[in-house]
Design brief:
Metallo-beta-lactamase, Chain A; about 260 residues; 5-stranded mixed β-sheet; globular; alpha/beta; about 20% helix
C-alpha cells in the first residue's frame, strides 16, 4: 500500500487502506474524525468536521474525484465544512435541521463548546464569537437501506436514531467498515441526554448494529480510529443489562462498560 503523508497545522490524516482516510482534529477536546472513501468514479466524505478550519484543503490533496458528503447527523461538530462541497446528503429526519438550524441547541452553547479546551494554534480565520454552524439545503435526503455506489465500492445507509432523530450509520460493503458517527465510539460517553436525544431509540439502534454481519472494523466519529468488531458483542450484553434494570431513560446518568459508555 502506498502511504499518503500530509503535514497540516490543524488536521491529522490517517491512511486506513489504499482508498480510505480518517481526517482528524486532535487539537480540540472532541477529537472529531471525518472519513474519506475513494471509489473508481466518486468519493464519499463522511462528515466535514468542526469548521474551525477548512477540511477541503485536505480532501483536495487526497483526491480529484467528485465528492459526495454523507452527514451522519446534523450537529455542529460534524457539518463544519459542509459549505465547501456541492453535493451534500442528510437523512430526511434532519433535513429541516440542516436548512433551519439544530433544534434546541443555542448558538451561545455551541460557541462555548467550539472554543474550549483547544490545545494547538487555531487558524486566524477562526473566531468563536462569530462562529456559526452551516445551514443550507441538502442536495438530497437519505433513508434507511439506501445504497450509494461510487465505483467498485458500495455504501449502505442505516437509520440509527437516538443521539439525534436522523442519525445514520454507513456500511462499506466492500471492506466491512462500519462508520457509526456518534452512535458508537470508545473512551468518552455516547450522548443520549440532550432534550433532542431518545435513549430508547439509541438502544434500538445499538441492537441494529449488533445484528449486522461481515463487520471488520468500526469507525466512530470521536476518539479511537478503528475499533475491533468484538465490541458489538459487548454492546449486545450492555443494552440487555440497561433494559433489564430500567435504565434506558433520561436522567439515569453515565453507564460504563469495558470498551464504551453511554450517558442518558
Amino acid at each position: 500500500m502506498r502511504m499518503m503523508r500530509i503535514q497540516d497545522s490543524w488536521f491529522t490524516v490517517t491512511q486506513i487502506d489504499e482508498g480510505t482516510f480518517a481526517i482528524s482534529e486532535y487539537g480540540h477536546w472532541e477529537k472529531v474524525h471525518s472519513y474519506l472513501l475513494l471509489g473508481k468514479d466518486k468519493a464519499v466524505l463522511i462528515d466535514t468536521g468542526l469548521g474551525i478550519d477548512n477540511i477541503k484543503r485536505i480532501t483536495d490533496q487526497l483526491t480529484d474525484l467528485p465528492i459526495v458528503v454523507l452527514t451522519t447527523h446534523v450537529h455542529w461538530d460534524h457539518i463544519g465544512s459542509h459549505g465547501e462541497y456541492k453535493e451534500i446528503y442528510v437523512h430526511a429526519e434532519e433535513e429541516d435541521w440542516l436548512i433551519n438550524g439544530i433544534k434546541k441547541l443555542s448558538i451561545e452553547q455551541i460557541r462555548k463548546d467550539v472554543a474550549r479546551d483547544i490545545t494547538i494554534p487555531v487558524p486566524s480565520t477562526f473566531n468563536p464569537e462569530t462562529y456559526t454552524p452551516f445551514t443550507g439545503k441538502p442536495t438530497g435526503t437519505l433513508q434507511d437501506g439506501d445504497e450509494i455506489n461510487i465505483g467498485n465500492r458500495n455504501v449502505v445507509i442505516y437509520h440509527t436514531p437516538g443521539h439525534s432523530p436522523g442519525h445514520i450509520s454507513i456500511f462499506d460493503e466492500s471492506r466491512g467498515y462500519l462508520f457509526t458517527g456518534d452512535l458508537l465510539y470508545d473512551e468518552t460517553p455516547v450522548y443520549a441526554f440532550f432534550p433532542t436525544t431518545d435513549p430508547v431509540a439509541l438502544v434500538q439502534s445499538l441492537k441494529k448494529l449488533t445484528s449486522m454481519p461481515n463487520v471488520t472494523k468500526i469507525y466512530g466519529g470521536h476518539n479511537t480510529i478503528g475499533l475491533e468488531p468484538g465490541i458489538l458483542t459487548e454492546v449486545k450484553s450492555a443494552v440487555e443489562y440497561l433494559e433489564n434494570r430500567n435504565l434506558v431513560r433520561h436522567g439515569t446518568g453515565i453507564h460504563r462498560f469495558e470498551q464504551f459508555c453511554v450517558q442518558f
